[in-house]
# Entry
Amino acid sequence: MAFISSGYNPKEPMKDRITDIGPRHYEEFYPPVIKNNKGKWLYHEILEPGVLMHVSETGDEVYTVRAGGARLMSVSHIREICEIADKHCGGHVRFTTRNNIEFMVDSKDKVEPLKKDLLSRKQPGGCYKFPVGGTGAGITNIVHTQGWIHCHTPATDASGPVKAAMDVLFEDFTQMRMPAHVRVSLACCLNMCGAVHCSDIAILGYHRKPPMLDHEYLDKMCEIPLAIAACPTAAIKPAKIDLPDGKKVNSVAVNNSRCMFCGNCYTMCPAMPLADDVGDGIVLMVGGKVSNRISAPKFSKVVVAFIPNEPPRWPKTTDTIKKIVEAYAGDARKYERVGEWAERIGWERFFEKCGLEFTHHLIDDFRDPAYFTWRQTTNFKF
Amino acid sequence: MAKHKTPMLDQLETGPWPSFVSDIKREAESRAKNEKGVEYQIPQDVCEDLLGLLELSFKHGRTHWKHGGIVGVFGYGGGVIGRYCDQPENFKGVAHFHTLRVSQPAGKFYSTEFLKQICNLWELRGSGITNMHGSTGDIILLGTTTPQLEEIFYELTHNLNQDLGGSGSNLRTPSDCIGQARCEYACYDTQALCHHLTNEYQDELHRPAFPYKFKFKFDGCPNCCVASIARADISFIGTWRDDIRIDQEAVQAYVGGELKPNAGAHAGRDWGPFDIKKEVINLCPTECMKYKDGKLYINNKECTRCMHCINVMPRALRIGNDRGLSMLVGAKAPILDGAQMGSLLVPFIKAEDPYDEIKEVIEKIWDWWMEEGKNRERVGELIKRQGFQRLLEVTGIEPVPQHVKEPRSNPYIFWKEEEVEGGFTRDVNEFRKHHQR
# Structure
């Protein structure tokens, strides 16, 4: 195919260059009903799972139909979203923080045709293209990271386990039977570009083997002091290594017993890869939240130290999540988030009710804050 | 006929949830057929190679992407992530597969016209695969080659009036909740502030001058739908300081069962009739509410604005009128020293254009962090290392009890010399006149 120039001239990169203009202004993209009623909304109601009504003091109403999306999305799929938005929503659409797609209409009679249209669209294998739901006390879309589709440090895939988990949790995407909303998130390594550490249920990719050392190339590929400084536990030190051919090279040595498998060294030094088919897998964390409602925001806690990667459908991971969700749904009080429930019944009871094994891995031994997580009272449950 | 066999990925094409595998296959097919006669600027079979490479990762249980190389557009130090595959001979289409982060509009509202322009550009000059959106908020364009980067940037800026987002040790693309655009809880205009600061700090966003990444996130109320308190170096969370507005008639309608509690969020199960005592009064964390003789009373002075009662009875209770936001500083994910939640720095500040007071706080924090922060040290870690007092000092903010959950339980106060009468310089010989050796 022939090269098509955009108009950019590599010989004169600064000619007509436009920089620092930022994103498009949001007001260009508001649907009229939003533009006219911004700041005037009185109240909202969830009419049914996936359908919201917002009522303005002007008397206007906006109806939102929320559809799930794989955040990994082709332009063909986006064009289909546009086709729907053109047909039903006057050419406007929005996305949510949790990768859902929101189609908005300005009267109630437009909701059913829109919903019907969304639910009628399926992929060749029968998957919904636009499942409707993700509202209220249910389980909405999983926010996640890149995984094996595009990242260099993952300890698990992202889109794969998310698809598998959402298939298992699908009914709760389309209904609202939970005691409170349940936020599930996935980060494929503990860099957590997904910031899953405050989720009701967090799926986290984790390495369990210290880095391999590519001695022959290490000094050529990396700044050794940066690799050493990158280690949070000071497990890396400089070393002179004799290569099999007799050559002496500058490299590093790793104190394996101090390694916390964070991969930070690998981020700084590509000659220290950690990834391993057996070593890598999934950590499950639960009980986090970001809302300030009733109780303060909380971090998620590790409740399963390791589940192997099981592509393509990660059955042990999804089974365990389902088990936790069902125990919570059956036992928690109305409005109680997973973490609040666990704290009320006690974590000893949480493990019992969820049928999870408690192992030494779950006791914090990372620096000072660890102490505050041990039990310093005689109050506990048998 | 698919270029690579993908038996494992194919198993992700069933089940109810949208399948990214089916979607990538759809794009692969569209490119192979090329019914519109697009002059693809990167390999036509890029999506097939992407699936083939991903299948290999499913088989090996390991990623096949290498570290990012240094690629970008002229004059920017962010917005492009270099990406190369480690099996370039077998998967030529994705040998070079760089990402562009495109700064999303505040609130993530779009016109289809704009989205179609993005699609056309990305079909021509990239893989046609995106993330809508990345975790930080950007539109992510996944996979193109180095020669296309400047072309894409030129088209974005010249034809789409659209810039790239942040990556690396920069201000990352700020993001916000839906705010006043469609939410009655929003205490300030999140889109306005997000857009304003994004544009104000384009230089910080595009040119790395920071020790590490820095994130702004804007939540309109303490429900925190964009999770700012957990993941933003500065979170801007809407709040108010006067009284919750009560509509007693609507309270009665909730009590009488005419209105559904929590806007119908619990409709999927029979929780029994609504009980205002049990579901609102007794769950109030400050016990500042009572319900007597058919009337609801709130002792607003004791309220901490947790949103529970408002969430449960949105038609009866509304946020106050004297609104602004709280600024919390230092949240981050666990790398390296463990996760941190944002700590309250500014309890209340008005959010009014041109936001000068807010910018003053931001810039003082940046000056300190750029001076004192170590390489790859987030501002939250610097606060831990040098102390919250230091943050107060550099921002010139007076300490108030609102800054702490509880006062310290150790007396190891780092008294400053100027705080202690007479200073630290003393004469030991004078001392010895009264105290023998």
